[in-house]
Amino acid sequence: MNILIASIFSIDSYSRGIMPDVLQSQLNKFPDANIYYLTCSNTFDVCYFNIHRKPDVCYRCKTGVKNTLKLVSGNFKHIVVSDIISAENKKQAALFFSDKSIIGFDHIFENFEVGAATLSTYISRSRDRDLLDADQDYVKELAINALSIYLGLQEFLQKEKIELVYNFNGRQDYVRAVLRASLSKNIDCYNVERARLGGNIEFYKNVLPHNIVYKVNLVEQCWRESELPEAKKKEIGANFFHRQKTGESIIFPSFTKKMKKGEIPDYLVNGNKNIVLFNSSDDEFAALGEEYKNPFFKNQNEGLEYLTELFGKHLNNYNLIIRMHPNLAGVTHEFVNEIRELHRRYPNIYVETPESGTDTYALMEHAEKVISFGSTTGLEAAFKQIPVIMLGKGIYYFSNVAYIPDNKDEIKNFLVSDLKPKPLRNALKFGFYFLNGGQKTKYYFEGNEGKGIFFKGDRIHSYSFLQRIKAKIIQKSFQLFRIRLKF
C-alpha cells in the first residue's frame, strides 16, 4: 500500500503533533506499506503561519520537523515540497496568475479553488473580510505556491501510485492544494482536525472539516452508536454546556473569563422585551464557498442593518441587544466599526462591544429570544431552552436546534411570535459529541488551554541550545541586514 501523509504546516499549529501521530499510527497498522511524509521545510518563504517571510520562523519549522521525526519508529520516507514540484510546475502556476493583478474568489484551476483557498489565508491573517488590501504581494505569492503544489502533487500521486492521503484541515491554500490534487486523481483524502483539547482528532473523508452535513452526521453517529443509556448521554451533553459556561476551553477558546459574572446593563430592565443577537466573526467563513453563503443577506453587516431598521422603526417595544463577538477586539476594519456605531440609530438598539465585560450568559438569561448567525452561542441558548432564530449558516443549521426563516419576510414573524424552544435533545447531541466525539490519539497530546503540544511525551517543538542560537542568528541577520541565512 502506498500512503501520503501531508503535514505542510509544521509550526504554530497543533498539526505539528497531530500529523506525526497519524504517521506513527499508519506505520503501526501497515508496517510494509510505502509511506511518504510531506512537509514544506522551507520550500517557500511565506505561508499561513509566516506571512512576513521571517527566515527564523522557517528555520524553526524545518528544524522542529527533523527533531520530531526522530521520535517516529518505522520505515517511511520524509519528502519536502521542493522534491515534488518542478520548474515547469512553477512556470505553469505563475503563468496562470500572470494576467491577474489581484487574487479573486473566481480564480479556479481545474477542480482547485485556489483563489478562495488563498483568500481564506489572507482574511484569517488580516481580518480584512472586504479584501480592501488584498493586493499585497504575498497574497499572489501564496496563490502561485499553492498551485505549484497542486500541479506537482498530481504528478507525484500518479507516479508513486498513491492510494490514500492524509492531510491537515484543508482550508488554507497549501493544504487545500493537497485535498484537491488527491481528489483530481480519485484518491481518498482524509482531512484531519482536532476534535477537542487533550488528544482527540477527527477525520473528514474528501471534505473540509467545515462541511455542515458531514459534521452533523458525525454528531448523529456518535450519539446513535454510543452504548451509554440515553439518560447518561444527556447528562454528558449537558455537562459540556455547564463547563463551557464556567470558562473552560474544551474545543474553542473561552472568552468568558474576561467577563464580569452576572453583570448586566441597566437597559435590560427598561420594560421592553429583550432580543439578544450574538454575532460571529464572519470573516472566518468568508472563503468557504456556497455552503456558508448567507441565505438572506450579503454578509452579517447587511443583516444587522436590516434588523436595526426593523427594530428601530417597527418593534419599538423590543430591545435589540447586539453582543459583538469578543474575538473582534482590536479589529479596526470598517465592517467592525459599523457594528460599533449601530446603537446611535435608535433608542432601542444597544451594542455590547467586544471589549465589554457584560456577562454573555446573563444577557442570554434575560432574552426572550436569541438571534444567531451560526455561532456556538446559538447552541448554548438552545440548551437553556431559549428560542433561537438562525440567520446564517453553522454546524447546527440542519439539526432542528433553531428556527430558520424561509425568507426575509418571515424574520419579523419569528421575532414577534410566541416561539417554543426547540427540543433540548437536539442541542444535547452536540454537547455529547464535543466531549465524546472523535478518535483518541495514542501519541499526540495537547495541554490544558492548548498550551503545550506533545508527541510521545516530548514537547513539540523543542530545540537544542545550538538550534536556538542558530535561530537567533538567522533572526538578527534578517532584522539588521535583510540577509536570509539558511542552515
Description:
With 487 residues, the protein is an alpha/beta fold. Helices cover 40% and strands 14% of the residues. It has 16 helices and 15 strands. It has helices spanning 15-29, 55-69, 81-84, 87-96, 114-126, 137-159, 173-184, 212-225, 230-245, 300-314, 334-340, 360-365, 377-383, 409-416, 424-436, 465-481, and strands at 2-6, 34-39, 77-80, 164-168, 188-196, 200-205, 273-278, 318-323, 349-352, 369-372, 388-390, 439-440, 444-446, 453-455, 458-460. It has a 7-stranded mixed β-sheet. A 5-stranded parallel β-sheet has the order 9-8-7-10-11, sandwiched between helices. The chain has a 3-stranded antiparallel β-sheet with strand order 13-14-15, with helices on one face. Strand 10, helix 13 (377-383) and strand 11 form a beta-alpha-beta unit. Helix 4 crosses helix 6 (137-159), helix 5 runs antiparallel to helix 7 (173-184) and helix 9 crosses helix 15 (424-436). The longest helix has 23 residues, at 137-159. The model has no long low-confidence stretch (mean pLDDT 94).
